[in-house]
Amino acid sequence: MSMPLPLPGAAPPAEAASNLFAQDEHGATQEGDVSLLSGEQQPQKRRRRPALACEQCRRRKIKCDRNIPCNNCIKSKIPACSYAPTHIPASRSKKKTTQATSSDNSASVRTILPAPTIPSQEELHAEDLFDFTGYGQTGAYKSSDPSPQHVPSSTAGSTSSAPRSNVEQLTHRVHHLEEKLAKVVTISNEDASPYSSSQRDSESLPSNGTVSKTRYFGRSHWMNGTYTLPFVREIRDRVESGQSHGLVHTLKACKAMGRTIKEHRQQPLSSLTLGRLNISRELADQMVDAYFRTFEGVLRILHVPTFRADYERYWQVPEMTSDFFVIQLQLVLALGAPFLDDVFSMRAQAHQWIHEAQLWLMLPPEKARMTIAGLQIMCLVTLSRQACSVGQDLVWISAGSLVRKAMHMGLHRDPSQLGVMTVYRAEMRRRLWATVLELNLQCAFDAGGPPLISWKDHDVLPPANLDDEELTDEVDDPEHTRHPPETVTGMSLQLQLYKSLPLRLRLLEHANDFRASESYDDTLRFNSEVTKACRSFSRNFAMFTRNQQVQATPKVNNFHASMAEMILYRCFHTLHQPVIARSLEDPKFYFSRKIYFDGALRIMHICGLATPGGNATGPSAADNSDFYRIIVNGTGMFRNVVIQSLPAIVLETMHKGELADLSLGYLPSIGGDFDLYAILERFVNMNLRRLRSGETNVKGYCFSAVSLEHVRALAKGMALEELEKNLTTMVNKYLEESLEELKTVARREGVPVDFMGEPVQMAEAEAMMEDQQGLDWMGDWAWDDDMAGVLWGSPRPYQDMHPPVFG
C-alpha cells in the first residue's frame, strides 16, 4: 500500500512530515520508519542542504534557475511556480529549547493529511496540452476537496518534537516571502484592456510554431501574428458553431469564383512550344528595363552587358539564340510585368512563362542544366514565383533544391580555392552564391522554416565592389580588384545586405528552432545587432545618395533601398512577434511591443502606407511607385511582411496609440506624426487594389477591413457584446464586396461568368456536399491561394492537437 503524498507547498504540522516521510535532496518522498506507538525517541536525523529549486522542478527532477516563475515552468505553461518554506531540522531546534517546553507539547495529537486526488489521464491531457517536457505533468496536483479533513492517527505516549516556536517562525517566514513576492510580481489590471487576461493567455503564441494539416510553420511565419487579434477567433468560433451560414455561403462563392479565374489563366504546356514570345519589341523593352531597374540592383543574378548583347541578337536572329537565353528572357519579362500597370494586365502571360521555365528545368537531361546559366534560371524562377504569385507558399521547397544545386556545383567554395579563374568567372560565382543565400533565407522567413544552412558551410569571399563592365578576363585577384566601399557601383546594395547575412541566418535559425529555449536575453541581443545593421544601412544609403549625384543614371535608387530595408526590418517581426501577446500583460516585454510597433510603422512607411499628415490617398513618393506596384501586384515577402505589420498597428490603435508618440531612439527615425487610422485605411485600400489587380484570395481584404471596423467601433465606445453581434455582419458585407470585385476581374480576363452556370450556383452545390461530410474550416479560411488547411488568422498550436499524419 503506497503512502499518501503531501500537499505541495504545505508546511508540515508539528513534526509529522519529518517523521513520516524523509525527502531526498531532489524532493522525492521516501517511506520512513514510522513509530507512532513507541515512546522511544527517534534517532536524530542528519542535517541536509535546504531545497533551493521550486517544487515543480524538484518533482520533475530537472535543473531550476530559481526565478519567480522559473524558466521551466514558463516553458511548460505551469500556472503556479511555488517554493517550499525553508525547513528547519528538529535537531537544531532541540538545542535551543528546554525540556519543559517539550513536556508541554507531549499531549499534542499528530494528524495526517489525506493524499490529494490524482487527476485522471483525460484531465492531465487537457491541462498539459503545451507540456513537451516528456512527463506530461502540471506544476502540482490539485486536490478534489478544497477543505480536506484531518484524519487522526494513532498516538503514543511520546511527544511531538517540534516546538511551537518553529511553527511560528515558519509562519513568519512565509508571510515575509509573500510580502517580497507582492513587490516583485506585477498584477495586471484587467480594466486597462477590453479583453480579459485569461482570453489573451489562451491566445498567446505557442513557443514551437503552428501546424496546418501537412505543413508546419515556425515562429517567423506571418500567420502567428494574428494570435494577438482576439476578434479573429470569435469569427472562427461562430463559423464552426454553425451560426454564420450566410457568411459561409458567400465565402464559398468567392472561392469558386477564384478557382474559375485561376483555371482560366492556366494554359496547356508542351515541351515543343517552349520559348515562343508573342509580344512586341516595344513591350518587351519596357519589361526588361523594369526588371533591371528593380530586382537586379538588389539580387545580382545576370551580367547586364552580356544579357543586353544576347537580347539584341535575339531580335535580329531569333532562331540562332540558345534555349538558355530564351528561358532567361521569359523570366526577366515575367519579373518586369508587375511594374507595367496597376492591374497586372500581363499576369496570365507571366504565369505561362514561369510554368514553361519550370517545365524546361525538369526536362532531361538534367546534367545539361548544371551550368551557371542553369543556376541563373533557377534563381529567376524562385524570385518570379514570389513576385507573380505562382505557388509562392511552396517556394521554400524549391529554394532548398537551389542551394543544393549551387553547392553541388562548388559555389560554396571560394573561386581562389578551386583553381585559377578570370575576374568575370570568379565574381559571377560569388554574386550568385550571395543571391542563393539571400533567396533561401527570405523563403525560409516566409515559410516559417529554418534556413538549413549555416555560415560555416562555405568559405566564399564577399563579391567585389565592381560594376559589370569591370569584370574582365584577367586573372582574379581578390586583394586588388575591388573599389572602396564608399564608391557607388551596381553591387553596392547587395554588399550592404551581405554584411548582415550571417546575423540574419543565425537569427532565423534560432527563431525557427523548435529546440531553442525562449530566452528573452537572446531576443534582446539579436535586437541590438539588427538595430546596428539597420543604422549602418541608413548611413551608407545616405552616403550613396550623396556620392552618386554626379552620375547621369543613379545606380542605387529608392526601390533598391526600400526592398533592402524590408529585408532588414522584417527581422524585428520575427524577434518580437512571439511575445506581443505577453507584452499586453507583463511590462517586462514592453520593449518588444514598442520595437515591434516601430518596425511595423517603418514597413508601412516603406510601402507608402504611412506618411506624415494622415493623407490616405495612396503612396506619397512618385519616384517609389515601382515598389508600391510590387506590393500591390506581388506576393511572397512583398505581401507577407506588410501583413505581419498589421497586428502591431491594430493593437496600438486599440490602445489609443500610446506608443505612436514615444520614441526609444533605437531605430532610424522616419520623422513626422502618423495617423494610425489613416494607415489602416491605406492598408484596406491596398488590399482592395490587390483584388482589382487579379488576386483571387479575398481574406486579405476582408481581414483588414474588419480590423478597421473593429478599432473604429472600440473608439466610439461600442460594448463588446454588441461588437461581437455585428462581427459576422461586417465580415459578410466585405465578402460580398469581394465577390463583386472578383466578377469584375473575371469579365476583364474573359472568364465566362454567366455561361454554364454562375460560380455562385456551383458554390451552393459544393457547400451542400461539404455540409454532409463535415466542413473543413481549416481549409476554407486559408489566406494563400494555394494554401489549403490554414485557419483564417488562428492557426492551431501543434501542442493542442494530435500530431498530424504527414503525407
From TrEMBL:
Q: Name one GO cellular component term.
A: nucleus
Q: Where is the composition biased (Low complexity)?
A: 152-165
Q: What organism is this sequence from?
A: Clonostachys rhizophaga
Comp. bias intervals (Polar residues) = 98-109, 140-151
Report residue spans for region: Disordered. 1-49, 87-121, 137-169, 191-210
Enumerate composition-biased segments (Pro residues).
1-11
Q: Which InterPro entries match?
A: Fungal_TF_Env_Response, XnlR_reg_dom, Zn2-C6_fun-type_DNA-bd_sf, Zn2Cys6_DnaBD
Q: Which residues form the Zn(2)-C6 fungal-type domain?
A: 53-83
Key words, A-Z:
DNA-binding, Metal-binding, Nucleus, Transcription, Transcription regulation, Zinc
| SUPFAM superfamilies to which the protein is assigned, alphabetical | Zn2/Cys6 DNA-binding domain
SMART domains linked to this entry: Fungal_trans, GAL4
Q: What Gene3D superfamilies does its record include? A: Zn(2)-C6 fungal-type DNA-binding domain
Entry's Gene Ontology molecular function annotations = DNA-binding transcription activator activity, RNA polymerase II-specific; RNA polymerase II cis-regulatory region sequence-specific DNA binding; zinc ion binding
Q: Which GO terms describe its biological process?
A: DNA-templated transcription
Question: What is this protein's record name?
Answer: Zn(2)-C6 fungal-type domain-containing protein
